[in-house]
């Protein structure tokens, strides 16, 4: 996938917009006259001169003053001409310097790309560092993005799997080429941790890692994502750690849509997500996988796992502070593993499991605090063979919806939950009464708790 970007203006573009000398002189002179006149009349007003005395003859002193004024006007006009010409010369010199820097950058870029295509892994490694250095020193943002695009394109190239030690020479070649790929991943993480606007920072640039195989660690800890798009769409993560712990997402998008996770960990612990989206739509999570948002601060935007297939591993939101955003598991299939919100604080947001199929594993809200205009919905969800538990949770001033849900025996648990105010809507749900629900809502059942007829206790 190629990310469409609007070209940023370069210094050459700005040079083409320079005014012609005649226009520049005319406008500059007119502006100078206007400013001088404004200052003169302003001073006259401030000094309270109401009129100028008139004389019938021109004396020598007045004549000399007029001569001095004439020479002053001529000198001022000459200074304006010199100023405009100097300004244009400076701009032309800057444009020429930029063209020279761009030419040198292009030459170095060609050499680095040639190295990246070498048969020797060591030469490729040199090409990787050369391209990273070029991105750091690029004269403008477009050239920096081009260098980053080439590094990402290298990661997207197909590579031969490890042949094993039976073919020792090919095995060593595989390890050497894998080191090249892992070096690119390391350099990307290093540059995203640098504050935006400082030298060597790549924040605000796009990373297109569509379909790549990540089999080495990526360190985005404490990185800041303020603009741009980082996409791992349809990527494969195996035997690796992708570390976003402590990262700040305040703009742009990070997408794992369609990605496959196995024997790996993606860590968003202590991250701050506000004004940005983290997407896992259509992702597949299998045994040995862990995606952690523990202690994260999620507000304003979304963590999106629509149609995700979770057959193993765990997705953690334990102890997270979720407010003003959306956690979206719509149409997800949970057939194993755990999705846990244990001890999380959830307020003024939406946690959506509508149309989800939970046929194994656990969705866990144990000890969570759900309050302040929050909505947790399992509308039309199918829960059989798995468990959705709100054990010891505190639910107040919010809405919990299981309307039209299909619930099999012993799959929904509200034991020791504290429920006050708000709305619990089980309208047209099918299955047995959830464990501990009637005890938690109290007797008589409040009007804000909507139960199927079969669950309504007999007075």
Detailed description of the structure:
The chain has 459 residues and is α/β, with parallel strands linked by helices. The chain folds into 2 domains: 14-48 and 62-116, no CATH class; 205-455. It is built from 7 helices and 33 strands. It has helices at 11-16, 21-46, 60-116, 121-137, 141-156, 168-192, 437-441, and strands at residues 207-208, 213-214, 218-219, 224-225, 229-231, 236-243, 248-249, 253-255, 260-267, 272-274, 277-279, 284-285, 290-292, 297-299, 302-304, 309-316, 321-323, 326-328, 333-340, 345-347, 350-352, 357-364, 369-371, 375-377, 382-383, 387-389, 394-396, 399-401, 406-407, 412-413, 418-420, 423-425, 449-450. Strands 2, 3, 6, 9, 12, 13, 16, 19, 22, 25, 26, 29 and 30 form a 13-stranded parallel β-sheet that branches. Strands 1-5-8-11-15-18-21-24-28-32-33 form an 11-stranded parallel β-sheet. A 9-stranded parallel β-sheet has the order 4-7-10-14-17-20-23-27-31, with no helix packed on it. Helix 2 (21-46) crosses helix 3, helix 4 packs antiparallel against helix 5 and helix 4 (121-137) packs parallel to helix 6 (168-192). The radius of gyration is 34 Å and the shape is flat.
């Amino acid at each position: 996938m190629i990310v469409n970007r609007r070209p940023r203006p370069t210094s050459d573009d700005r040079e083409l917009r320079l005014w012609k000398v005649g226009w520049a002189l005319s406008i500059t002179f007119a502006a100078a006259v206007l400013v001088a006149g404004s200052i003169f009349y302003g001073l006259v007003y401030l000094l309270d001169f109401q009129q100028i005395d008139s004389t019938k003859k021109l004396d020598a002193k007045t004549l000399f003053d007029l001569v001095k004024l004439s020479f002053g006007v001529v000198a001022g006009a000459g200074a304006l001409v010199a100023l405009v010409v100097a300004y244009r010369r400076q701009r032309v010199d800057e444009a020429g310097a930029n063209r020279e820097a761009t030419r040198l950058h292009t030459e170095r870029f060609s050499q680095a790309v040639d190295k990246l295509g070498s048969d020797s892994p060591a030469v490729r490694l040199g090409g990787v560092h050369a391209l990273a250095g070029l991105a750091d020193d690029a004269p403008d943002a477009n050239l920096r993005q081009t260098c980053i695009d080439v590094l990402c394109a290298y990661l997207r190239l197909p590579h031969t799997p490890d042949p094993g030690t039976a073919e020792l020479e090919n095995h060593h070649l595989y390890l050497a080429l894998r080191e090249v790929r892992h070096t690119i991943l390391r350099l990307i993480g290093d540059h995203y941790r640098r504050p935006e606007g400082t030298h060597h920072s790549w924040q605000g640039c796009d990373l297109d890692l569509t379909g790549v195989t990540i089999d080495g660690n990526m360190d985005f800890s404490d990185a800041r994502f303020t603009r741009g798009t980082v996409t791992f769409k349809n990527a494969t993560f195996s035997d690796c750690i992708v570390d976003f712990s402590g990262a700040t997402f305040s703009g742009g998008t990070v997408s794992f849509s369609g990605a496959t996770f196995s024997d790996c960990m993606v860590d968003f612990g202590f991250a701050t997500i506000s004004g940005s989206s983290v997407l896992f739509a259509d992702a597949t999570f299998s045994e040995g996988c862990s995606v952690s948002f523990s202690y994260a601060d999620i507000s304003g935007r979304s963590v999106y796992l629509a149609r995700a297939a979770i057959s193993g591993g765990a997705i953690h939101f334990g102890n997270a502070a979720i407010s003003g955003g959306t956690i979206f598991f719509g149409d997800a299939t949970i057939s194993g593993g755990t999705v846990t919100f244990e001890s999380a604080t959830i307020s003024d947001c939406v946690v959506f499991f509508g149309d989800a199929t939970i046929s194994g594993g656990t969705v866990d809200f144990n000890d969570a605090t759900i309050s302040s205009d929050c909505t947790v919905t399992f509308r039309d969800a199918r829960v059989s063979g798995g468990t959705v538990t709100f054990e010891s949770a505190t639910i107040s001033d919010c809405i919990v919806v299981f309307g039209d849900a299909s619930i099999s025996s012993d799959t929904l648990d509200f034991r020791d939950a504290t429920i006050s105010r708000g709305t619990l809507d089980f309208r047209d749900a099918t299955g047995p009464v959830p464990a501990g629900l009637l005890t938690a809502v109290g007797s008589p059942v409040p009007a804000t708790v909507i139960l199927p007829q079969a669950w309504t206790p007999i007075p």
